[in-house]
Amino acid sequence: MKILALETSAKAVSAAVVEDGKLLASGYQDTGLTHSRTLMPIVEHLFKNTDMQLSDMDAVAVARGPGSFTGIRIGVAAAKGLAMAAGKPVIGVSTLEAMAWNVAHVDGLILCAMDARRSQIYNAVFEAESGRPVRRSPDRAIALEDLAAELADDISPKIVVGDGAALCFRYLTERGIPCRLAPPHLLMQSAASVGFAAETAARSGELQTAQELVPVYLRLSQAERERNERLKKEQMK
Fold it and tell me: What's the domain range around 132?
């Protein structure tokens, strides 16, 4: 199965084509430009340099969240548009699960971490088994204090991955919970890992139409929180 995968959940943006567990091509950019400006040129360049076309793909995959609200919206909208244009199914995968594929070859627990601000991280815990990440917790927004308490008595080796990995690593090690950072080339989100996660999802029948694909944010956006707080204050007057 040949899959075009998109990753726009954080500062960097990437696209990749994977087939049967093999990375065929990829493009990556972390230059500070907006994903709305960079994603589609990366996809177009990827196809041009490989003599592949969108019609050659069996599905379009995307990291559906959690992550940057704007980034997730851009990625999901692009995946929906590409899938609808080509009449292809889509596969929405958890950003955190995709990240776990970066280090699924390493024994032990995989701690996926994205900085969610407000003293929290987006997190999920996986365990590497036979080169695949097996989920041990749901995707969640969790305080580092609570994650540390959860892991305090677990003696399994631990590796931390994601754009919030350094923050998580520092907090845990300062509290006597040993873990290690993923190496730099495996630390951040990547479209290739989105593709590998999507292959597993496809084998489980988790294909969707473009209309069915929705982003997953885990919590309200800042604008929504501010609106709710404003309405609450108005009701108290």
Answer: 102-187
